[in-house]
Amino acid sequence: QVQPVESGGGMVQAGGSLRLSCAPSGRTFNNYAVGWFRQAPGTVREFVAAIRSDGNTYYADSVQGRFTVSRDVTKNTVYLHMNNLKPDDTALYYCAVHGGGSYYHGPEYYDYWGQGTRVTVSS
Q1: Partner residues linked to 58 by β-bridges
Q2: Which DSSP symbol is given to 16?
Q3: pLDDT tens-digit profile of 41-64?
Q4: How far apart are CA 58 and CA 70, in angstroms?
């Protein structure tokens, strides 16, 4: 009922920036926490960032200081601003809607997932 849809992926050179967007298909998710995860080929899905309905944010150590998650409630959209991108950031990026509770760093705490948007960072 709160199905997210990601957009904004693409190719960028190392050191560049990219902004991903996540918007719901259906019900608004302004009252839900929203997370970003990524998965590279041959790896497990890893937490990237999350934003709560009150605006509080969480970041993985690997992206702290480079990525920023934000929410525009008037547009019912969550963004992931990615700066100083590195080749290791190359992955399929997923937006997910949190299922409630106080934990945000694992995919098991999210109920609805987007299809993913691909980010490729070249050296």
Answers
A1: 50
A2: -
A3: 999 999 999 999 999 999 999 999
A4: 11
